[in-house]
Amino acid sequence: MYTNTNLAKDMTTRRPVTSVVHEYNEVVFAWKIVKQAGVALHTNGSEIRAFFTGVKRTKIIRRCVVSLGRTSKGPTPSYEDNDATIHQIQANKLTPKIKHLDIMMTWLHEQDAYKIFVTIYCRTDLNKSDMNTKAHGRVDITNKTLMLNWI
Prior knowledge:
The chain is α+β, with helices and mostly antiparallel strands. The protein has one domain (2-140): Nucleotidyltransferase, domain 5, CATH 3.30.420. The protein has four helices and five strands, in the order βββαβααβα. The strands form two sheets. The protein has a three-stranded antiparallel beta sheet with strand order 1-2-3, with helices on one face. A two-stranded parallel sheet has the order 4-5. Helix 1 packs across helix 3 (102-113).
């Protein structure tokens, strides 16, 4: 799973865009791109909301795979390009800076404890969900992601 947000590029609403990409054997099979419900006060807040959305979808996909008779071999790798978000998820505690996101963070801490996902840092230029939230040229998309052969 890859998650990413684009903070406040829409001049009319200033709402960030969430992008979540799921892949299996390096093939994208599910993605979600949606404007967040409200204006984020900082990039970390929008990234936590995007990561929360991605883990919810990951749980659904994992349940589907188990219902097909496959066993889970471990936590799902979840790539994030925001260090602050990764540290807050791994810290397993709430801080005053993210008090407004306490329900999402507590749920993420719980899923982390259940080993549903493992958070891995991914540079922004290699984050596959980045192409859904930022403008890229043809060279960027073909050289860095090669996810879909639409070009």
